[in-house]
Amino acid sequence: MHESFKLYKEKVKAYHDKKLLKKYFRSGQQVLLFNSRLKLFLGKLKSKWSRPFTIKEVKHYGAVELFDPQSETSDRSWIVNGQRLKLCHGGNIERLTTILQLQDL
After folding, report:
1. What is the pLDDT of residue 101?
2. Which of 59, 69, 83, 102 has its CA 20 to 30 A from that of 49?
3. Domain locations in the chain?
C-alpha cells in the first residue's frame, strides 16, 4: 500500500509540474501582478491583476524583485513568485464610464 501511494504522489506531481508555464523575465520589463486577496471582496468585475510594475532583478528559481515606478518612494521593492506575474504589453487602457441621471416622476 505504501508503494502505491508513492506512485500516486509521483504521478500527481508530474501532472502539476506539466501544467506550470515557463516564464522568462528580464529586468526593466513591465509586468502585471496577480492579486489573490481580491477574492475576499464582493463584485465580479474587479480585476485580479494589479497595475504595471517594473522588474528590478530576476532571482534564482523564478523569484522576481519588483518596484513601483509610480510610487513616491521608488527605492521600495519586494520579491514575488514569478508564477504570479504576466507581461504587460503596454498602452493606455481606455475606461468607459456611463452616468445615468435619474429623475423622480
Report:
1. 84
2. 59
3. 23-87
